[in-house]
Write a structure and sequence with these properties.
91% of the residues lie in helices and 0% in strands. By secondary structure, the chain is mostly helical.
C-alpha cells in the first residue's frame, strides 16, 4: 500500500493523515468481509452435512 501512497496523495490532493485514515478504514472493511466469508463457509458446510444426513 505504501508504494501507492505518493501517487494517491498527489492525484487526489490528500493529506498523508487522510490517506492513512482511508487505509485503516479499508483494511477494516476487508478484514470484516474475510471474516464474514469464513462464517458463511462454516454455515454452508453445516447445511451440506445436514442435507447429506437427510
Amino acid at each position: 500500500m505504501h508504494e501507492c501512497k505518493r501517487g494517491y496523495l498527489a492525484r487526489f490532493g490528500l493529506a498523508a493523515r487522510r490517506f492513512n485514515a482511508v487505509e485503516v478504514n479499508l483494511r477494516g472493511k476487508v478484514n470484516a468481509a474475510e471474516e464474514a466469508q469464513k462464517l458463511q463457509i462454516d454455515q454452508l458446510k453445516g447445511a451440506i452435512a445436514a442435507a447429506e444426513k437427510a
